[in-house]
Design goal:
InterPro entries: Acyl_CoA_acyltransferase (IPR016181), FemAB-like (IPR007434). The protein has 14 helices and 15 strands. The protein has helices at about 15-20, 30-35, 75-85, 115-135, 155-160, 180-185, 190-200, 220-230, 240-250, 290-295, 295-310, 325-330, 345-360, 365-375; strands spanning about 1-5, 45-50, 55-70, 95-100, 110, 140-150, 165-170, 170-175, 205-210, 255-260, 265-275, 280-285, 315, 330-335, 335-340.
Length: about 375
Amino acid sequence: MITSQVFSSIQAIDRSAWNDCFPGALEDWDYYLAVQNAGIEDFTWRYLAVFEDGALVAAAPAFITRYRLDTTVSGPAKRLSERLQRWWPGLLQLPLYAIGSPVAEQCHAGTASHIPAVRRQALLEQLLHLARRDADAQGIGLLAVKDAASQDRQWAASCQAFGLQAMPSLPSALLPVPFGSLDAYLGTLGKSTRKDLRRKLRAPGPRIEWRRNIDDVLPEIMRLYEATLQRSDLQFERLPAPYFTGILQQLGERAACVLYWVDQQLVAFNLVLLDEHRLIDKFFAHDLEISREHNLYFRSWMANVDYCIQHRIALYECGQAGYASKLRLGCSFTGNSLFFQHRNPLLDTLLKGLKYVLRPDRSDPAMAAALSESS
């Protein structure tokens, strides 16, 4: 017998059963528990579960928030939306029920390992029906799936069969790392990029320290985070200090914080998740003035690539920002889609029209190029 249920805590779901639905994921049960315990403001967590004869067969994380429709907009369009927001507070905000996570790289809806592929799409549609019922019970009209991987054809087909509209979301940047050395990696880049990076690397660099405990430098970590957040057009959530410490504590050897020091001053940090197969860049923050002098972004990039080479990690997953630089640095891109539907037909029609204005690549040529490569 098939049953479905929504939980407000991931601890209500067996850890191994959840992880069996997402084999090999670094953003697994432990990651979502750390996120849940971090106390991120303005988000309510939901966990969707489908059971067959009492055993978990499909699952997905979800969240509730008030969503700004211009979240993925940048450049002149963002400045215009900010002006509209000042003139008419709340104009661009809607209550949102979304499958996925604001702090996960992609929305993975998972099915248990013993489920045959021919049954997967039907179970994914069960998750969508469960989310719609839960959203209705919360009085929320806008249902979305955030950052569904375009390569997951069954997930996309389930969303479309459910009647959700699709629009491009921020693509994910990937760097395969088959190289035997940094020189071999540099040799794959364009001549001007290669020359520029070698020139930057010849200058004295910061001291790099890999950490799994940051309690003693947490105030400096948060200072750098807040400064970086203020410069970002695309940030969806504001991460509190317990997010950074909780990820390191909960994931153990599968997470690290890379610190960059100039003399005794902490000038940048990079939170990463990692295992023997890949390294995921979760957040990079830096002091802008010192960053320019010491090329901290590129130093961090090369440090991560070198770590992958030294530890034979085959894939560097490097996030959803900075597309112009990542194109130069040899990344490939995988597409993501945002699916949505509003219960109110008039608002749904309006959102269908707005998606052509609000799609993220309209004001960012580099992002448009990345989207083109991922299609």
